[in-house]
Amino acid sequence: MKLPKALILRCAGTNCERETANAFAMAGARPELAHINELKSGRVKLLEADIFVIPGGFSYGDDVAAGRLLANELKRFVVDLRQFIRSGRPVLGVCNGFQVLVKAGFLPNNRQELQSASFTFNDSNRFEARWTHLRINTHSNCLFTKGLPEMIELPVAHAEGKFVVKTPKVLEELKRSNSIVLRYVNETGEPAGYPYNPNGSVFNIAAISNPEGNCLGLMPHPERFITRYHHPNWTRQTFHKEGVGLEMLRNAVRHVS
Amino acid sequence: MPVKTFKPEAPPPASARPAIGLRDASPAKLQDLNRRHGWSLNAAELAAICRHFRSVGREPSRAEMETIAQTWSEHCKHKTFTGEIRYREGGRTLRFGNLLRETVMEATRRLKKPWCLSVFKDNAGVVAYDQRWALAFKVETHNHPCALEPYGGASTGVGGVIRDILGVGLGAKPVLGTDVFCLCPPDGADPVEGPAPRLMLERVVAGVRDYGNRMGIPTSGGAIWFDEAFRFNPLVFCGSVGLLPRWAVRKEVRPGDVIVAVGGRTGKDGLHGATFSSSGLHGDSPSSAVQIGHAIMEKRMLDVLLKARDAKLLRSVTDCGAGGFSSAIGELGAGCGARVKLDEAKLKVQGLEPWEIWLSESQERMILACPPKNLKALLDLFDAEDVEYSLLGEFTADRRLKVEFRGETVIDLPMSFLHEGLPKRTLEAQWNPPPKVSASRIKSGSGSCSDALYALLSHWNVCSRAWVIRQYDHEVQGGAVIKALQGTAHDGPGDACVHWPHAATGEVDGFSAVAIAHGLNPNYGRLDPYAMALCCADEALRNLVSVGADVSRASFLDNFCWGNPEDPRTLGSLVRAALGCRDAALGYQVPFISGKDSLYNEYRDARGNKHSIPGTLLISAVAPVDDFRKALTLDFKAPGNAIYLVGWTAEEMGGSLYSQWRGDPLAGAVPLPYPKRARACLRLLSAAIAKGLVSACHDLSEGGLGVAAAEMAFSGEIGALLELDEVCRPKGLHSNEAVLFSESPSRFLVEVACEKEKEFLKAMKGAILARVGSTLANPVLRIKGTDGSALLEEPLAKLKEAWIRTLPLAMLERRNGAHS
């Protein structure tokens, strides 16, 4: 059987591509790293992939604003990417990749890819690397979180991760369409302030998808929790069989297999 | 008003080679030239240069003088460590022809460890990791730049050590960063002169953070030591670990290979970095010698260089650090020769003098030696990812360094003179032990043990570093299996980090990992640098054992930071530390694989007073973890388990935190490890951990048993009962303070589950250990004194609060101060 191909986009400053590729390989896909120049030159074709991933990092040094320049570059492929998403294939933007999807207008989803949300500096005004408790919206259509426990843990690491919306209406629409996939919560599952919400995101939003649920953007890093040994407390716990991040990627692979 | 149009700067004068009148200059004139140009050369060296140019019958060009000054600088040639030294201590005199070779390197040579693949010659030490992979490790200082411009200094320090890893063999992939700082405590009012301590800490951390995070290299471990003595001369050690295939360890240069410069462009930034780092600092030190880094440029270069390595396109690689092209090309071509056309270099600004292009320390540049037949493939790789390069020339067979600019030869020097013409110097060294202060003075006195425990937990050198660690992306590359912060609330102080480098090897099915740790304590060095060296080695190994690494395959790195070696007492203490390193390596059977020194860490203030740092040795250690599923954290895991203290507790309070708290830091005997005995114990414990017999392990370091027990308890939110009378100690040692806070080396506190106790004791047969207590469900730390009476009982939450708040509180004050 031919393994589904996960196309992982690189550019100057992408830095989570290798572990993302390894995680997709573990999840049963055939990862392929592609430099943005290879997409531009047509050597690599987006529509030939089964899964499209924009990994974390500091694309172009996050100059101007996090993800802004790569988002502009992505606009060159707007027709292809729109078609890719509408065909129902999984698209994943992690951390910087989420920022790119938002700034390119693919999330929150609308027909013309107009940007309606953004990211700004963490409320703490510092880079924050920590594990967060997340609550999955069980009403969401997101294919990545299917079958996962309602409460999960994943690490975040970012300085510009505070999700903000252009108008209150955008947030209402996100809620109405069940596009909010993950929210930062405390140990008991209630939305809480810093440090549970590491950046001060509006409505404690950690991840959103399109209403169809195949295009997911999230600040936490699923590729950093692919074995139980990634969890900061694995030396005390016996209940984690494997990383919940791997389960998310497996869902995507299963979807296209 | 006439409008001025902007005109590019005029090109340099037609004669690109203004000769410097050296041959007939008087010694006074020579010294004047030396000072004016900032060469940091001494009289004998100037004389040797004069002799050379007299023999060739011409004057040197500016570029030639700058090249020689850079190549012969303390920074590049390590003149003190490789020079002749006469060392006197009490009645005995020792002579060294080459201190480094006769101490640290000698130990490595005698140990003959088969896993040492490349030691003391490349940009980093290389040891075997497994059958296919080798591991490169390097830690180096960036002290002088950080003193002048902490952010730029720290970030380029990180960038520089990453390029060292990228420039080892044919290129290694950096898999983790580890950074150690020695700084002034960020409390009190900002000083009148010198950098403000709070700002210094904030900016150094920011520099490491911004460069490391952007590079996507986890900053996984490190240490911070706070001491007033580092106010003017902060120490910033930047370390990096990389992996490379074993076939890529060897490099060579052949005549005809093309010299390719890749990465950033060359500008006017960072001139004279090598030479300025080779002298003391003062109020007018040139901050223009410090560059600003550009991490994304380096990331691009890293990506393509590793591709070029895997395509086997390169014959050699090295980085442009201090001394820029001059140092990189001069060293690569030392064995054959090189011809360079400076016109080819890509510049940031026009109008640079040839010597400026040649010596510029602009960041993010590497030099490659590429066989002509591979050149096209290499350049295609660079073009595909928009990486800039320039073809500077070629390596030759004439053993000369020839540099041309605009058709004129600006440098023409024999490699032999450049690399071997440096006159040896003999330095005097003298060691006088400080007067002994009896420890009896601290036995009686006010303040209870619980006061002391709270004070030590909140002490600068113990308190939580979470404020710093959380700013570093320590999980990128997905390999942090034992993190710096551990325990139920993810904030306990781990001993070392364990990293699973699958992002470099691609082997997600393997469970082998690597652990990194450090040992540093300048307080011991104030009493005896020899003991300090042994203690640092012991601490680094203890940390490795505590996370489950295999210390029988450990390797060391040294970093010596001292004051002015021309002062015989300073040099005496340096020699003693080097002797300590040798004995530590031989005693623990752990080879040194690389190292670095930074001297002249002194500052002349406005009133002319000299401030020198205490001699500071950092020993960093790396060891493999065969199966990271057996790795350990320090937090107590469950109530009702046995607590064992491994090791012998003596009254060794000299330089201890407790003595410092009591206001007399030098009182008492300095801790002195017995490496041979300690080695056996470390290996036994290491084996017991590998068998899974231990639930938690923490080494006893600053603050001794009291601090270690508190840290293990509050990290796991599990209480503990300790009985001091059970501790293995000399007869007649009844002082609770001494047992609780002595810093005797080679000790561990370990938690053993009841059902494994028997097997644990069997595995540890031959080691000094005693069951000193047990874990409790009640979240308190309860300690019984040596006479069996209750000594203290403190709630864990309160202990943790004392430990956790020091640093954030101080940094918050700074922010409030800045806003008001």
Verbal overview:
Chain A has about 260 residues and is of the alpha/beta class. Helix content of chain A is about 25%, strand content about 25%. The longest helix of chain A has 13 residues, at about 245-255. With about 800 residues, chain B is an alpha+beta fold. In chain B, about 35% of the residues lie in helices and about 25% in strands. Chain B contains 28 helices and 34 strands. Chain B is globular. Residues about 1-15 of chain B have low confidence and may be disordered.
Q: How many runs of DSSP E, i.e. beta strands of chain A?
A: 11
Sequence of strands across the biggest β-sheet of chain B: 11-13-9-14-12-15-16
Main β-sheet description of chain A: 9 strands, mixed
Number of strands of chain B: 34
Average pLDDT of chain B, rounded to a whole number, is 90
The greatest interface between two protein chains, and residues involved on each side, is: A-B, 40 and 48 residues
Q: Regions of chain A with pLDDT < 50 over 5+ consecutive residues?
A: none
As a whole number of angstroms, the C-alpha radius of gyration of chain A is 17 Å
Number of helices of chain A: 7
Q: What class do helices, strands and sheet pairing of chain B give?
A: alpha+beta
Q: Distance N terminus to C terminus of chain A?
A: 9 Å
CA-based gyration radius of chain B: 27 Å
Helix content of chain A: 10-25%
SSE inventory with pairings:
The complex is a heterodimer of chains A (257) and B (820).
Chain A: E1 5-10, H1 17-26, E2 30-35, H2 36-41, E3 51-54, H3 68-74, H4 78-86, E4 91-94, H5 96-103, E5 117-120, E6 128-136, E7 151-158, E8 162-165, H6 168-176, E9 180-185, E10 205-209, E11 215-218, H7 244-256
Parallel strand pairs in A: 1-2, 1-3, 3-4, 4-11
Antiparallel strand pairs in A: 5-8, 6-7, 6-9, 9-10, 10-11
Helix pairs in contact in A: 3-5
Chain B: H1 27-37, H2 43-56, H3 62-71, H4 74-77, H5 79-82, E1 84-89, E2 92-96, H6 99-102, H7 104-111, E3 116-118, E4 125-128, E5 133-141, H8 143-148, H9 150-166, E6 173-183, H10 197-215, E7 219-226, E8 235-245, E9 258-263, H11 273-276, E10 281-282, H12 295-310, E11 316-319, H13 324-332, E12 338-341, H14 354-359, E13 365-370, H15 375-384, E14 389-395, E15 400-405, E16 408-414, H16 415-420, E17 426-431, H17 449-457, H18 466-469, E18 480-482, E19 485-486, E20 492-493, E21 497-499, H19 502-505, E22 513-519, H20 522-527, H21 529-547, E23 555-561, H22 568-588, E24 592-598, E25 602-604, E26 610-612, E27 616-625, E28 642-646, H23 657-661, H24 675-690, E29 696-699, H25 704-716, E30 719-723, H26 736-741, E31 748-752, H27 757-763, E32 769-776, E33 780-784, E34 790-795, H28 796-819
Parallel strand pairs in B: 1-17, 6-7, 10-25, 12-15, 23-24, 30-33
Antiparallel strand pairs in B: 1-2, 3-4, 4-5, 5-8, 6-8, 9-13, 9-14, 11-13, 12-14, 15-16, 18-21, 19-20, 21-22, 22-27, 23-27, 25-26, 28-31, 28-32, 29-31, 30-32, 33-34
Helix pairs in contact in B: 7-22, 9-10, 10-12, 17-28, 21-22, 21-24, 22-24, 25-28
